[in-house]
Design a protein that fits this description.
Two copies of one chain form a homodimer. With 156 residues, chain A is of the alpha+beta class. Chain A is built from four helices and eight strands, in the order E-E-H-H-E-E-E-E-E-E-H-H. Chain A has one domain: 2-Layer Sandwich (Alpha-D-Glucose-1,6-Bisphosphate, Chain A, domain 4). In chain A, 24% of the residues lie in helices and 42% in strands. In chain A, strand 3 and strand 4 form a beta hairpin. Chain A starts with a strand and ends with a helix. The interface between A and B is medium-sized, with 30 and 30 residues.
């Protein structure tokens, strides 16, 4: 069961993913910016994740590696534009296999009644680049990440 | 007279600006990544430009300040995602007055017959944010920058 919602409109260049977590904003912000916790929730269920680099500050770089059951690696990374705790961060990202398809991700956290709405928007260079991510099952990876993050938050 | 072309389609989130310069790609790339030269071409004719920061490498930050005749300052900045000399660079940018409207700029240089096609694409978080830049005369600033850059290149 997932309560993750997506907005993926035809002809637009972005994907918006929204999830409400039953935890205060400070707790959610810490969880999503803590390199130690990333392997516990980032990525789809069937892959493991290694954090090679995660400098959570303007100009900081990040690099996560997804590893499949055969040991093949798929690396993603970019740089942080802005980090405004506990409200939002903005970073670039690209799959290293498609280094020219850079996207801009903005994660915004809004608190209401002790719950936190997590909104991740990814803006792509073209509709085609965005649609390629959709075809590559990006939203499924996002949905599973959100489910895993909910479990991490519940265990704290 | 300007040979700068724009693609600004309704409902899309990006602005694409194209200009052909009569100089080799290496020369154009050096000019657009040299902090000393930025004040000579970046921005509209009626403003002066100061470079506070320009670290041309992945994770490097940049900050340019436009100054009007009354001394008022308008600052822009962000971080470099990627720098692939002499082909392209990718960086984030925001006007400091609207810090949440972060955009992703990709500058690509393509050489043909000793001339260089400069393509700058700016992808915005929303159609509305892109349209606000258009209403704020962003394309005019871009066009004037390109004219000024052509003069800088011609003087070298």
């Amino acid at each position: 069961m997932s309560d993750t919602e997506f907005v993926i409109e035809p002809g637009r260049q972005d994907i918006i993913m929204t999830r409400v977590f039953g935890a205060p904003r400070e707790v959610v912000f810490r969880a999503v910016t803590d390199p130690e916790l990333i392997p516990r929730w980032w990525g789809p269920h069937f892959l493991t994740t290694r954090v090679d680099l995660m400098e959570v500050r303007p100009g900081g770089r990040w690099r996560y590696v997804n590893i499949d059951a055969r040991g093949r690696e798929y690396a993603f990374g970019g740089v942080y534009h802005d980090v405004v705790a506990p409200e939002r961060f903005v970073r670039t990202w690209a799959f290293e296999g498609w280094p020219e398809d850079v996207a801009l991700e903005t994660v915004t956290l809004v608190e209401a009644d002790g719950r936190t709405k997590y909104v991740a928007q990814s803006v792509h260079r073209s509709v085609e680049a965005r649609d390629a991510i959709v075809r590559a099952d990006g939203p499924r990876g996002g949905r599973e990440s959100m489910d895993r993050l909910a479990e991490v938050l519940a265990s704290h």
